[in-house]
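**Fold tokens**
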Amino acid sequence: MDDSHARKFQKELNAGLVSLVLLSVLAASPADLYGYEIAKRLQKANDGDPLFKEGTIYPVLRALSAAGLLDSHVVPSVAGPPRRYYRITDTGRATLADWLGAWRNTRDFVNRCTETGSP
């Protein structure tokens, strides 16, 4: 597979996972987080190499917030523009639990298919 196919596959895979990962990061955090902070945590979780581009995180955070899965509030910043902080809602936690179940089932199925050649 050439590099363009690999990049396309990774992009499609990431598009389906970014919401799950963002909810997971926010569920694990005791404090509200802003976008850049979340991006840095994701980068650190991948040994310093960001799997998601920072620019893809913000529209997903807004969509999750619009769906009622996150609450957000804006806080003025002394060192730049105001920051929007996010917190997972109870509905977001319930959705995350459902999505994690779906992810585990999908992951296990893919592992069975790729490791043995049959589901």
